[in-house]
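S.,

Sequence below, as promised.
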Amino acid sequence: MQLETETLSGHLLNEREAAHFLGCSASLLRKWRLSGGGPDYCHVGRLVRYPVSTLNAFVCTNTISQVEKN
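The prediction came back faster than expected:
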């Protein structure tokens, strides 16, 4: 996945691709957008797109270390 992420770092993913990247459903991404949560996204015209860099940042921000739990 690391190599794939590096080659896609400047790319925009559609909702289905972003959901696959995060391992969640497209409907969860829609719910997050409506509630103001979830990863940052942008509009390209009327299309919703997710920059890979913001998806990576979202994962990093929401990663919980075992050290933090103790």
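Residues 2-69 form a domain with the Arc Repressor Mutant, subunit A fold (CATH 1.10.10).

Coffee later?
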